[in-house]
Write a structure and sequence with these properties.
It is a multi-pass membrane protein. Its main location: membrane. It is found in: Cell membrane. Keywords: Cell membrane, Ion transport, Membrane, Sodium, Sodium transport, Transmembrane, Transmembrane helix, Transport. The protein has 24 helices and eight strands. It is mostly helical. Among the domains are: 407 residues, Sodium/glucose cotransporter; 31 residues, no CATH class. The strands form four sheets. Strands 1-2 form a two-stranded antiparallel ribbon. Strands 3-4 form a two-stranded antiparallel sheet. Helix 9 crosses helix 15 and helix 10 packs across helix 13. It is globular and about 75 Å long.
Length: 648
């Protein structure tokens, strides 16, 4: 077992990835003149359909997924693949719930909606600030991921390349910040397309070489099946079980609903399309691409296991964690072929670049629209000046991502902390959007208190689980098939720890945890569900206790269209609680007068004049004024004013 070093072809493949990504950004900066915020942040709202769908896919193809999915299947089997089933169901639901409302508002920041709906800048700022904090920290972890998984075992860059790994981290971060800042959303989308191709090529290389090593795809699945790695449809109603079909479907459904429906990266992309129909098509095109990519990652995990089924490198002490299995496989089986090692590292770099560039562009949009645009100094700037501010913000967030990557290298458990962060944020943020769109009675007090309690509960559970360090045993591994050469290379200390040829990667014994500590053992997949449920329940109760928000005509565009039609059908005009129209006129006190019959022209008590009902029908030029002062033009059955009342 000998590992090859980088060849000229490996350098060419890796450096080409960074150079081409930079070139795309320069092209859109120089030749396409991305100068205003409309160009930089939403692509002039005229983005092409297929590239945008691929970009949305690439955004969530982080190296944590590329490496972690293979490790998950290697250790726990294929049960996690069932996430594709929830994606198939939930993506159309996400499009139906969120897109008709959010797209028609022509948002740049998704959190603008929250201020409009709840009539509260505080709700918007709180949600936006949470998102910025989450993404900034997560970008650092993602940027460091290509080398962090292999740092402690001297794999990947620092094992095969003669320059420090931090040069790679800084090079990735700076190139990403530069092409994102100068090229804007268009550059991000088209580099995502290129990087998606590299990612798929890297995974295909693992699958093809791995299948050839075993002797065919059917043999791969036969070996995996014999060792219990092929698992599906495990229906247990146990929220404390790490993986079962129910937890996977429900937990992942909440994540998909959040990611595809109301997360800034998705909203920014489908709001950049020319029409609502194209925005919806973007999500529907992304769906089969997600299924294909996750399937490829799952097959890669099965293939890697088949190659190590009888000689597990974790049990031998060659690697420490299951998320290091993919780099180990690449170094053993792909590195002897010139160019393939460079392709795999380029695959990891591309996964990092696509996620970080989308993150930079998203937090730039949120920072400017939700914070700076509220300041008179920035709001009075011209379009090009505002664009320059956004470019500068993108560079700042790129530098912050690099700083977070350095931070990730100096603290253990940063990856676990990122999972805690994402799990605690996704649920409450989804909940506040659901409250706004689907629960018209909820108010700003319910939204704020609900988010605070939701974040607090999920962070408490996540941190409790982190410090409890409860682990679920992996499926069994074997070292029966290791060759004498491999045993010679294994550290003798690690060998003496092997009590048998059949062992587990981590020697944890699953035992019952007493209450109240047991709450910390709830499946990590259910963190978003807990946060979402707590936020909605608390937010609804607080809204009712503080005077729930009555549905009014001016809220129509912030509520789901189906709910609007239902409410209008079952409520009379008198039951609407109109507060203010666009002219600031108090309509609530006038609602009762709209029922008064109009027989002859006269002045109402509020001074507004109506012509007679007869004159209005007979005279095509006849006009009148409603009780609220609105001018009514003659129609066949009277006039319709913008408060929704018809006068005959």
């Amino acid at each position: 077992m000998s590992f090859a070093t980088f060849t000229i072809m490996d350098y060419v493949v890796l450096l080409s990835t960074l150079i081409i990504s930079m070139a795309i950004g320069v092209y859109y900066a120089v030749f396409k003149k991305q100068e205003t915020n409309a160009d930089l942040l939403v692509g002039g709202r005229s983005m092409p359909l297929i590239p945008t769908a691929l970009s949305l896919l690439a955004t969530y193809m982080s190296p944590i997924l590329v490496l972690g999915y293979a490790g998950e299947i290697y250790s726990y089997g294929t049960l996690m693949y069932e996430t594709v089933f929830s994606s198939l169901v939930i993506v159309p639901i996400a499009a139906w719930i969120f897109m008709p409302t959010l797209y028609n508002l022509k948002l740049t920041s998704a959190y603008e909606y929250l201020e409009y709906r709840f009539d509260s800048p505080a709700v918007r700022i709180f949600a936006a600030g949470t998102f910025i904090t989450q993404i900034t920290l997560y970008m650092g972890v993602v940027l460091f991921a290509p080398v962090s998984f292999s740092l402690h075992q001297a794999l990947a860059l620092n094992a095969v390349v003669d320059f420090p790994i931090w040069i790679a981290v800084v090079a990735m971060g700076l190139s990403c910040a530069l092409y994102t800042s100068i090229g804007g959303l268009r550059a991000v989308v088209w580099t995502d397309v290129f990087q998606m191709v590299i990612m798929l090529a890297g995974m295909f290389a693992i699958v093809i070489v791995g299948i050839m090593q075993v002797g065919g795809l059917s043999k791969v699945f036969q070996i995996a099946g014999d060792h219990g790695r092929i698992q599906f449809l495990k229906f247990h109603l146990d929220p404390f079980e790490r993986l079962n079909s129910v937890n996977i479907f429900i937990g992942h459904a909440i994540m998909v609903l959040s990611i595809c429906g109301c997360q800034q990266t998705a909203v920014q992309r489908y709001c950049s399309m020319k029409t609502l129909k194209k925005g919806i098509m973007t999500l529907f095109i992304t769906l089969p691409l997600v299924v294909f990519t996750v399937s490829l990652a799952a097959i890669a995990g099965v293939v890697i296991f088949a190659n190590y089924a009888t000689c597990d490198p974790i049990s031998l002490g060659l690697i420490k964690r299951n998320d290091q299995i993919a780099p180990h496989f690449v170094l053993e089986y792909l590195s002897p072929t010139s160019g393939l090692l460079g392709l795999f590292i380029a695959c990891l770099f591309s996964a990092s670049l696509s996620t970080v560039s989308s993150g930079i562009n998203s937090v730039t949009a949120v920072t400017f629209e939700d914070f700076l645009a509220k300041l008179k100094y920035f709001s009075n700037m011209g379009d090009i000046q505002q664009g320059r501010v956004s470019k500068f913000l993108a560079l700042i967030f790129g530098v912050l991502a690099i700083a977070m990557a350095f931070l990730a290298a100096n603290f253990d458990g940063v990856l676990a902390a990122s999972i805690v962060l994402n799990g605690s944020v996704a649920g409450p943020l989804l909940a506040v959007f659901l409250m706004g769109i689907m629960l018209p009675f909820t108010n700003k007090y319910g939204a704020i208190v609900g988010m605070i309690v939701g974040h607090t509960v999920t962070i408490w559970i996540c941190l409790g689980a982190f410090f409890l360090k409860h682990r679920t045993p992996t499926l069994p591994f074997s070292t029966d098939g290791c060759s004498a050469e491999i045993w010679d290379k294994v550290n003798q200390t690690a060998v003496t720890m092997l009590n048998s040829s059949e062992t587990h990667a981590a020697q944890f014994v699953e035992s019952d945890v007493p209450w109240p500590e047991k709450i910390y053992t709830v499946s990590f997949l259910l963190y978003p569900l807990i946060g979402c449920t707590v936020t909605i329940v608390v937010g609804s109760i607080v809204s009712i206790l503080t005077g729930y928000q009555r549905f009014s005509k001016d809220q129509d565009k912030y509520i789901h269209p189906l709910l609007v039609s239902i409410i209008r059908r079952f409520r009379t005009e008198k039951e609407y609680d109109f507060k203010h129209n666009s002219n600031g006129i108090d309509l609530k006190s006038m609602v009762t007068t709209t029922k008064q019959p109009i027989t002859e022209g006269h002045f109402r008590s509020n001074g507004s004049y109506h012509k007679s009902k007869t004159d209005a029908k007979e005279d095509s030029s006849s006009n009148g004024y409603a009780t609220n002062g609105h001018y009514i033009s003659k129609e066949k059955n009277g006039g319709l004013v913008n408060d929704g009342f018809r006068y005959d």
